[in-house]
Amino acid sequence: MVVPLQIRLQNNPLLHQYLTEHSYWYKSLNRNPQSIVALEEEMKEHYRLRPSDKINRLSEQLNLIQTFMKMLG
Q1: Is residue 5 packed enough to be buried (19+ CB in 10 Å), middle (13-18) or exposed (0-12)?
Q2: What is the number of alpha carbons within 13 Å of residue 18 lying toward its C-beta?
Q3: HSE of 61, CA atoms in CB hemisphere, 13 A
Q4: DSSP state, residue 12
Q5: What local confidence, expressed as pLDDT, does residue 73 receive?
Q6: Would you state the pLDDT for residue 1?
Q7: CA distance 26 to 4
Q8: DSSP one-letter code for 23
Q9: Local structure of 29: helix, strand or coil
Q10: Against a cut of 0.85, is the pTM above it?
Q11: What are the helix (H) ranges across 23-72?
Q12: Which residues, 6+ apart, have CB-to-CB distance to 43 below 8 Å?
């Protein structure tokens, strides 16, 4: 593995965890270090870290707060 790739994996604990859980990525990264971009996208989708996921989570929280406010009032 290329050293900058190793540093990138060490600096992102979620990415490192995802890589250990999905070890098939090791072969892909050894053959093509640029596939780290695809790995990051897949990791973000798996852990729901995309901007759309964050917006959905915020919307759900606001709906929950609104429901509680209706029940209190």
Answers
A1: middle
A2: 19
A3: 6
A4: -
A5: 78
A6: 54
A7: 15
A8: T
A9: helix
A10: no
A11: 25-31, 36-46, 51-72
A12: 14, 15, 18, 49
pLDDT value at residue 63:
96
B/e letters for 8-30, b = 16+ CB within 10 Å, e = fewer, are bbeeeeebeebbeeeeebeeebe
Paired tokens of 48: 């729901």
At what angle are helices 3-11 and 13-21 packed, to 10 degrees?
110
Looking up tokens 């490192």 gives 16
Pairwise CA distance, residues 58 & 73, whole Å: 22
Chunked mean pLDDT (size 10), the chain, 73 residues: 86 96 95 95 96 95 95 87
Position 9, amino acid: L
Q: Which residues of 56-70 are buried (b: 16+ CB within 10 A; e: fewer)?
A: eeeeeeeeeeeeeee
